# Entry
Amino acid sequence: MMSSVRIRVVLVEPLYEINIGYVARAMKNFALEELYIVNPRTNIGITAMKFASHAQDVLEKAVIVKSFEEAIKGVDYVVGTTGKHGREYNIRRSAITPEQLCEALKDFSGYVALVFGREDIGLTNEELEKCDVIVTIPANPKYPILNLSHAAIIIFYELYKCFHPVKSFLPEASHEEKERLIEYFNELVDVIGLPEHRRYTAKMAFRRVIGRAFATSRELYALYGVFRRAVSLIREYENLKSKRGR
Amino acid sequence: MMSSVRIRVVLVEPLYEINIGYVARAMKNFALEELYIVNPRTNIGITAMKFASHAQDVLEKAVIVKSFEEAIKGVDYVVGTTGKHGREYNIRRSAITPEQLCEALKDFSGYVALVFGREDIGLTNEELEKCDVIVTIPANPKYPILNLSHAAIIIFYELYKCFHPVKSFLPEASHEEKERLIEYFNELVDVIGLPEHRRYTAKMAFRRVIGRAFATSRELYALYGVFRRAVSLIREYENLKSKRGR
# Structure
């Protein structure tokens, strides 16, 4: 999917080297490479390089341009970002969420610019008017203004998830594998001689815990042996006691 | 929902004031307040305050403790974070995604600690063993290591979304409202005298564009007038022409 969408990140008149460096790092963390910077209001030197960390290549390839128009030239879909999203009556700032942006881009193929505004005043109304869509990150209404690189990395993260969906790092064990563990546990409940009414509760509790646990096969196999060995030791003991009892 | 989950953020032996300040800011952006810092390896002074921006109160209330154990004392569910998630055979680092953490916490009620490791070496294996669950942010395998405050804000953002779901900032217009716009547009197509075979395509194109546009009522109402006025002007003109033609 990613192959049909090309993404350019645009910083408009950034003020601080730290942020420029951090945005480069955040880009590389989420597999973005193309950075345009409109009229930086700072030198971009060793501080930016330091904060870019292992993404200095992104910074070195960054293109410095003189205007917003130059930065979005040739792009098919211009995404602006703002911390101040509009009420319904301010159409210019009608914003979608990062998740909605993902929805919109999922079936899109073309060249997209993600535009981030100045640390102090964001994007101007004139710049917002030139964007095809405005994205705002849902946040605490008491303090919704995120640092530039923080806002950027959240958008990058959402788009990365969108194009590289990871449901889980580890394959969840199959239903059968989980049933097997539950069976072993139930056997243990039965051999330890719990009163009948407590057996059901214990078995159900274990089933529910395992059901919520996102357990992997590897983890279940590590547990099988514990219950089986416990059951077999208890049985040996019972045998021994019954032999002695005779 | 949020009311039944209390969240504590724990930074373990952070190195840089900038990160401490930025984490405080990120916390406030997503409505978190309780910060514990284990053995900071830096003074926490004006630099941290500066980067905390409007979240200096979070920093001022932060609790400095001497050990990991102290930081998680009294907590019900300890969430560790790591950039190096384990393969299936490293059970200690078996990680879930931030989205899975949200799933896990949605129906949880209790006290949760979100633990972030050192900038240089993360959390130690011993610390990870003490966590109930490990979270890793899915990222570019070529450079998956995020800056501390970047990792933190992504987790905070996911949890915020989880407890304060925002489907959309702006209510999408109703089906009827969209149909009304389509009707006005179709009328326009009909009055301008397009050849029959192009009318269908134009009408269908407009329907599809509107269908994908997340349009709000306010936006639709702003458009109704345009089409209606265009239609009525064209009709006036046609009337005038037909009168003159007589």
